[in-house]
Design goal:
Elements (H helix, E strand, L loop, with lengths): L1 E9 L11 E8 L8 E4 L5 E7 L5 E7 L2 E8 L2 E3 L3 E2 L3 E16 L7 E15 L6 E9 L2 E8 L7 E7 L2 E3 L5 E4 L1 E2 L11 E4 L16 E2 L3 E6 L2 E8 L7 E5 L4 E6 L10 E4 L2 E2 L2 E7 L2 H6 L2 H4 L16 E5 H4 L15 H13 L4 E4 L27 H10 L3 E7 H6 L1 H11 L3 E5 L6 H16 L3 E4 L15 E4 L17 H4 L2 H4 L15 E2 L13 E2 L2 H10 L4 E4 L3 H4 L5 H6 L6 E8 L3 E8 L2 E8 L4 E6 L7 E9 L10 E9 L3 E6 L4 E8 L1
Parallel strand pairs: 26-27, 26-34, 27-28, 28-29, 29-30, 30-31, 32-33
Antiparallel strand pairs: 1-2, 2-9, 3-4, 4-5, 5-6, 7-8, 7-13, 9-10, 10-11, 11-12, 12-24, 12-25, 13-23, 14-22, 15-17, 15-19, 16-18, 19-20, 20-25, 21-22, 35-36, 36-37, 37-42, 38-41, 39-40, 39-42
Helix pairs in contact: 4-5
Amino acid sequence: MRIIFIKIFVSFYMRILRKIPVFIWFFAVLNYSVSQTVNTISPDGNVRILLRLTQQGEPEYSIIFKNTPFLQWSKLGLKLRNNNYTDNFKFITYETNTIDEVYRVYSGKSAFSRNYYSETKITLKSELTGTGYFDIYFRAYNDGAAFRYGIPKSDADMNIEVVSEDTEFRFAGDFNCWAMKKEKFKHSYEGEFREYLISSLFNNPNDPAAGFPFITLPVTFKVNNNFYAFFSEAAITNYPGAHLVKQNGSVLKTALAPDPSQTGIAFSSSVPLLSPWRFFIFGKTPGALIESNLAMNLNEPNKITGIENWLKPGKTTWSWWAEDRGFDPSFGYSILSTNTVKHYIDFAAANNIQYVTLDGGWYGWFDAMNDFSFRDLTKTLPELNLPEVVSYAENRGVGIILWVVWSDLEKQMDKALDHFERLGIKGIKMDFMDRDDKYMTDFYRKTAGECAKRKLFVMFHGSYKPDGLSRTYPNILTYESVMGNEYSKWDPRFPDPKHNVTIPFTRMPAGPMDYTPGSFTNVASDKFQAVYKHPMTKGTRAQQLAMAVVYESGILTLCESPEIYKKYNEFDFLKNVPATWDSTIVLDGEIGKFVIIARKSGNNWFVGGMTNQDSREINLKLKFLPTGFFKAVIYSDFPSVQTDPQKVQITNFRVKSGNSITIKMAPGGGFAAEFIPE
């Protein structure tokens, strides 16, 4: 190898956290034999990503964490309709840099995120392709690894048609994993994360999804008792989303969501082209996966100027789930009438709830799952005076969120969003996308950008998993892509307490999830019935309170009826809890068994704990608290909660850092706690 030049750039950045981003670049011309490798090492030396070329010129990579192999040599490459980027490559150049920067997070698990990594860009050339140049980028973080492809722009304009990827994941062992499988590409990423060995992903006779060919991202792995990994993708830009399909042994391969308007290809694009980052979060404990901001770190910086002046994460009421439960018949309840919506606004204003969501039906009743004919988003139901409602809410310090079907928004985006802006709408809840081909991933970005121009935030429902895009467009406050409380209306099995303590480790590290917690209609699992109108939920009320802390979402959607909330003192916790956090610490947890998370907002700390179908006694150690005394308010399962899951015990303590509190969680139970400095 001949070193041509070395440049070191140091620039001052983000004085607020006294961090100096350092950009160190190395550029080299390579004369490698096939036995040599390019090695990318994380700043702390614990993560290593290696690249080599086989005798046939095929690029292969492997990943090691703390000297434990995670991925063995696995193939890389893209197949195009007219040429392939898979073999006959030679090394041309590589560039290495180390970046250390801090950026503000406007909604999430922390107020700031440190983006600290080593990156290598490797340029290969194949004489069997047109222009022949193919870039592979590797990033090694202290808590993970990532890679992506790049096809650089040639001298002439170039369009490509990508048939498939040859990206392999050849795991170094038959690890335990938690995965969700689907029978087709078109779906909403809502389902069960089941535990498998990699080798049993498609041959477990007890698996109801045994015949489903596609594994969704994310997937969580347990390599050993001190090594957990989370696998997903970030920065899906000008590209479709990816699923995984099984190869031989412990090998998985990428399958791209196909373009529904074309046959034989996944997508077409001009160049230059960058694939999404395929990334892994690594940690000694499963809780470390939750604490990571890696998905956001892999995205471009914030594109919205001045967003701190108008973006406000918060809580919202939601009439769709509980409907008229608890309302006196004399009220004359009509779910989306002017009078009913005003009642919700009054309730929100009195109880520290920032928004009221008007869900399906406000612009006309129809079956959005089956009827995709166009409805005008500038019209409303006869019984709803939307300008009056928005003005009424504004005068009480409450914002209105409007639910929309994506295909209706697609047909009149400028007209509808301009109309919402004039009215004073604060955000939209876009629904029923149910796909992640390139057209749809492009549409997400377009929607976020167009909403930002009108100072509107976005909630994505019926969505694919988060990919960290909220760093680039911080007005994206939450995604659904989770089987949440709404399923209790129609599914007799889910969600159940085991599911509830699995998804923090298997879905949430990808980004925020709108589970819609807060049910106060709680029953034991053996008493549960799926009821569409006036539904109930499995597990205890204390577990539903804990979800407000455990589940990250920039819009915290509270599903229960206001008339039910008003009756119970434990609603005070939901009044006090915020929707975004300054810092997050996972105190303890095991996937599918239990989870305990502490989060800080201002000077207050909140803790949520949840267990599966097993009772559990925990010793809550308060080492996370700063010095000084705190008032602790604990909402826990009542001793008789097994016969009455709705009963919550509220206790008060005076505590300080270093103290501990013993808390019992009933089967399907949990606890929520607030610590307020004296």
